[in-house]
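Example 4.3 (complexes with small molecules)
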Amino acid sequence: MHSFNVCVLGAGPAGMMAAIRAAEITGSVALLDRNDSVGRKMLLTGNGRCNLTNSAPVDDFVLAFGSNGRFLRNAFGRFFSEDLLSFFQERGVTFRTERHGRVFPDGGSSGTILQALKDGLSHAGVEVMLNSDVRDIIRSDALLINLRDGRQISSMKLLIAAGGASYPQTGSTGDGFRLAGDLGHTIEPVGPGLVPLETREGFVKALMGLTLTSVAARYLVAGKWRKTAVGSMLFTHFGISGPMALDHSETIARQLGAGPVSMQIDMKPDTDRAELDVKLRNEFQRSGASLIKNLISHHIPRRMVEVVLGLSGIPEGTQCHQVTSEQRRTLITLFKSFPLTISGTRPMSEAMVTWGGVSLKEIDPRTMESRKVPGLYFCGEVLDLAATSGGYNLQAAFSTGYVAGESAASSLVDDRCSQESVGE
Ligand SMILES: Cc1cc2nc3c(=O)[nH]c(=O)nc-3n(C[C@H](O)[C@H](O)[C@H](O)COP(=O)(O)OP(=O)(O)OC[C@H]3O[C@@H](n4cnc5c(N)ncnc54)[C@H](O)[C@@H]3O)c2cc1C
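Answer. The structure with flavin-adenine dinucleotide bound is encoded below.
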């Protein structure tokens, strides 16, 4: 049987950072993954460019994680975006900050980040054990890890960094939830986050591939309208995607249990109804015999014109001077409150993150250690943490990984010191 001081289960960003930090403090650190390479999901992030953090202040990070964000304050206090960037800069990576503070490595490849982590693992002397699929964990004096191929590993400290259940083809199949549950941890209900949304309306097919930039939306949750910020969205053959849809998908997904969710898209967020009414009335008067479909294509994307006219009931051949004030109001309603009915989300296999997971109440936020099983630690997406897009999820994985690795290794050193002083 192999024995280690610290064993990290899962070689995603959280597990790699945890193993590197632990190995800087103590020897005999192992990093296990079922895949034949490390960081498989990380390579896909940011469309292959890896949006690894954000230039926003810590308060914005906390907000991005919703009501559970406060749990991360300690970890961010210990290892935040500037520490993460320094970690990679020391390994030769340079960065660029793009719109909305999103930080990417120069050169446009997540491979740059992965290579720096691999260098870090080898430099710190971490024993990377690939093709090591963990079946179960047994509590005894140490923690015993049984692999599916029959091998057994014993470790003084064990860090579970097995990720969530989204994109299971990358190795993150939700095993972390099962293993934590078997060890007595509460698992908050999980679901797909940062996931495209399916709509009832069949007309989305005709709009497939169309991006609406600078639009806002509102959607009905428990009888109250929630507003999104101005952003972009994309029509797909099944519904909608793009940052605006993805960032609100968790709230919508949680609401879907109670039935379909009504959404309204505001294609003119900078103009109110009254202004739009005056503008359209003047334009219709000036344009006389021109067809209405030509005029409204100055206000909304050409591909939306047919759908909007269809919903309004105004015949396409209508001339501008024929438009009644009631028809004008109907058009304004469609520009400002274009209706969609969200009927579902795409499956876990298309979700970027998993919401829910190991209950934060049972984890010490200062160390990431389990309050139930001494010597057991958690980091990354296996925890009940999921943020909007923008680099927040990877930063949380790195920050919690750093703290878990440091705490586990330091506590070993502390244990040894106290044993030595008892022996004296
Ligand atoms: C397409 C896509 C794009 C994304 N883009 C971004 C982005 O640009 N910015 C951002 O911040 N976030 C992004 N994310 C989210 C981000 O990738 C995750 O939040 C992050 O990878 C979580 O890190 P982790 O280390 O906790 O888990 P993971 O990266 O999921 O790693 C977990 C590891 O554990 C291993 N494992 C699981 N079970 C076992 C087992 N039983 N035995 C052995 N090994 C096991 C898996 O093989 C896996 O390698 C994206 C996600 C996806 C899917």
